[in-house]
Amino acid sequence: MDQTIGDQLVVVDAKTGRPDRYQGIPHDYFPGGSFLQLPIYALAAATEGRTTRHATYAFLGEVADDARHLGYEVDDEVVAAFQRVLSSIVRGIDGGSFPHHPPESDRPEAHRCPHCSPDGLDARRVRTARDRKVGHPVLALHEDHVTTDFLNGEPIAAATAGDDPETGR
Fold this sequence. Notes:
Blueprint: E1 2-3, E2 9-15, H1 37-45, E3 52-59, E4 69-73, H2 76-95, H3 124-132, H4 137-146, E5 148-149, E6 154-155, H5 156-160
Parallel strand pairs: 2-3
Antiparallel strand pairs: 1-2, 3-4, 5-6
Helix pairs in contact: 2-4
């Protein structure tokens, strides 16, 4: 955390890994309803009349200059979008929606989640089980969460509909 001359705060979450997964953060603050650290830190740090003005992931090591700091201004729009993300998460928890997120690849190095591939070797079983359950109403809660544009508060398909007159997308 850093403090500006105007007594506002800047939150920095230092990362030692690659910035690839974070590239969209400056434009889509919560892709797939995830990457919630920055607003949590920003809101937690804002105390005693001080506000958090900016929050960023800072990547250390050999990183291109345009990917070294990926963040955003913490304003009313960000806070409102964050509240929509949290509401969506609570709806999922209330509804019992805790689906696996198996990787698309069967390569062991692609597995980040031991729950999705307990043996670290084969996620096909988990993908097959998830595919069988895709129409279940509980998974609809999760699908709604990962496909919502939380900045606009609507499903991604609806948020981008009409951009292309030929396709309606």
